[in-house]
Design goal:
7 helices; elongated; mainly alpha; about 80% helix
């Protein structure tokens, strides 16, 4: 029971942060008015992608916690959690793609840090972050292109 409740708690935490961030900083008309690159996905892709990613992020955090990896791995997990929520506020809330771009580079480094610090002792947690690093890498490219096209 303890194992299941740990997974539920970590998944609930990441969904709480993500949904709170989205609720407090919705895209709105400002985002719709931005020039976007040709590779910008349709809006309906984002909630599907993030739902799958949030489940994997939560599972990875739970695995690290249950494995007792309470040093760098859990620190990277906590940092990515905060940075993940902050990005929406910077981009959509403050209407600052430049600040969001700088922040997403730090988020990307944090995700990579998690992967590197878990790959030996908790390889499944590390692998659960691979789709996340790929998506955030793509989001970094997208964010950078929006900065370029709108300045």
């Amino acid at each position: 029971m303890r194992i299941a409740s740990t997974y539920i708690a970590f998944i609930a935490l990441i969904f709480f942060v993500g949904m709170t961030s989205a609720f407090l900083s919705p895209p709105g008309g400002w985002y719709e008015g931005l020039n976007k690159p040709w590779f910008n996905p349709p809006n309906w892709i984002f909630p599907i992608a993030w739902t799958a990613l949030y489940i994997m992020i939560g599972m990875a955090g739970a695995r690290v916690w249950l494995a007792g990896l309470l040093g760098a791995p859990i620190l990277f997990w906590i940092l990515q959690l905060g940075l993940n929520g902050l990005w929406s506020y910077l981009f959509f809330g403050l209407h600052s793609p430049i600040a969001a771009f700088i922040e997403i580079l730090v988020l990307l480094a944090t995700i990579i840090g998690f992967i590197l610090t878990t790959r030996r002792d908790e390889p499944i947690a590390s692998l659960l972050f691979v789709p996340y690093v790929a998506w955030v890498g793509f989001a970094t490219l997208l964010n950078g292109a929006i900065v370029y096209l709108n300045n």
